[in-house]
Amino acid sequence: MYPNIIQHKDTIKQALTKIDELAGQTLFIVDENDKMIGTLTDGDIRRGLLNGANLDSPVEEFMSKKFKFLIQHEFSSGLIKELKKTNIVYVPLLSSNHTIIDVINLDKLESILPLEAIIMAGGKGTRLKPLTLKTPKPLLKIGDKPIIEYNIDRLIKNGVKKIYISVNYLKEQIKEYFGDGSNKGISIEYIEEEIITGTLGSATYIDNFSTKDILVMNSDLLTDIDFEHLYETYLNHNAEMAIATVPYKVNIPYGIVETKNAKVVSLKEKPTYTYYSNAGIYIINAACIKEIPQKAFYNATDLIEKLINNNRKVVSFPILNYWLDIGKPLDFEKAQEDIKHLKL
Question: Which residues contact 193 (CB under 8 A, 6 or more apart)?
Answer without folding.
Answer: 122, 166, 167, 168, 201, 202, 205
